[in-house]
C-alpha cells in the first residue's frame, strides 16, 4: 500500500509519483488541497481513481468555513483562497451572494468528498507483530487509548490530536520519520 500525505494541490507531482507505482493500492493522509496550483485536479483524480483518504487539518478548515463561518482557511498561508478561486467561489459570491456561493460548492462532488472524509482508516495489513495499519493525518501514539471512548472530551481530544499534533519528543523519532516520509509528495521531481 502506498500512503501519501500532504499533496496540497500538487497535481503534476502526484501524477508522476503514482505513475511509478502503478499496481499499488493508494491511501492519502489528508491535506489534498490548498497552497498548490491544482487542488481541484487533485480532488478529481483521487475521486475518479477511487483512492482512499482520511481528513487532514486543511479539510477540517474547510468544514469550519462552511459550517462555523470560520475564515481561517482563507488566510493565504493556509491556501483556501486558491481553492475557492479554482471553483469560481468569489465570482459567484460577488454576483449572487456568499450564501448562494457556499450552497453551490456544497453540491459539488469535490466538496462532498472533502466534507465526508473519515478521521482515520484501519486496514487489515498486518506487520510481524500482527497489528493493523492505522492511517491518520498526524500520529496517534499519545491518544490511542481514547480511540473508542464515547465521552465527548476524549473523542474531541483524539480527533484534535490526529489532525493537528506534530511530534516533538525524542521517543517520537519513529513518528517523526513517518511524518517526514509521508510529505515527500509535495516536493517537485
What does this structure look like?
There is one protein chain. The chain is mostly helical and 189 residues long. It has a single domain, classed as Purple Acid Phosphatase, chain A, domain 2, CATH 3.60.21.10. The protein is 44% helix and 7% strand. It contains 9 helices and 5 strands. The chain has helices at residues 11-19, 39-49, 57-67, 80-86, 89-96, 98-106, 109-115, 152-164, 173-181, and strands at residues 2-4, 26-28, 52-53, 121-123, 133-135. Strands 1-2-3 form a 3-stranded parallel beta sheet, with no helix packed on it. Strand 1, helix 1 (11-19) and strand 2 (26-28) form a beta-alpha-beta unit. Helix 2 (39-49) packs across helix 7 and helix 5 (89-96) crosses helix 6. The chain is globular, with a radius of gyration of 17 Å. The two termini are 21 Å apart.
Topology:
Layout (H helix, E strand, L loop, with lengths): L1 E3 L6 H9 L6 E3 L10 H11 L2 E2 L3 H11 L12 H7 L2 H8 L1 H9 L2 H7 L5 E3 L9 E3 L16 H13 L8 H9 L8
Parallel strand pairs: 1-2, 2-3
Antiparallel strand pairs: 4-5
Helix pairs in contact: 2-7, 5-6
Short key terms for the protein model shown above:
single chain; 189 residues; mainly alpha; Purple Acid Phosphatase, chain A, domain 2; 3-stranded parallel β-sheet; two-stranded antiparallel sheet; 9 helices; 5 strands; globular; disordered C terminus
Amino acid at each position: 500500500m502506498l500512503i501519501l500525505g500532504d499533496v496540497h494541490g500538487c497535481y503534476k507531482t502526484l501524477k508522476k509519483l503514482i505513475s511509478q507505482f502503478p499496481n499499488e493500492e493508494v491511501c492519502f493522509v489528508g491535506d489534498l488541497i490548498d497552497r498548490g496550483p491544482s487542488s481541484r485536479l487533485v480532488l478529481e483524480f483521487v475521486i475518479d481513481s477511487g483512492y482512499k483518504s482520511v481528513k487532514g487539518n486543511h479539510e477540517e478548515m474547510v468544514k469550519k468555513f462552511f459550517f462555523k463561518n470560520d475564515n481561517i482557511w482563507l488566510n493565504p498561508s493556509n491556501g483556501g483562497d486558491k481553492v475557492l478561486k479554482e471553483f469560481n467561489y468569489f465570482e459567484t459570491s460577488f454576483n449572487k451572494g456568499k450564501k448562494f456561493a457556499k450552497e453551490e460548492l456544497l453540491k459539488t462532488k469535490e466538496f462532498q468528498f472533502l466534507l465526508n472524509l473519515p478521521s482515520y482508516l484501519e486496514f487489515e495489513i498486518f506487520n510481524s507483530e500482527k497489528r493493523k495499519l492505522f492511517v491518520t493525518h498526524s500520529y496517534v501514539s499519545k491518544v490511542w487509548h481514547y480511540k473508542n471512548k464515547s465521552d465527548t472530551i476524549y473523542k474531541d481530544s483524539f480527533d484534535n490530536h490526529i489532525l493537528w499534533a506534530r511530534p516533538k519528543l525524542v521517543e517520537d523519532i519513529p513518528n517523526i520519520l513517518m511524518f517526514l516520509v509521508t510529505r515527500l509528495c509535495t516536493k517537485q521531481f
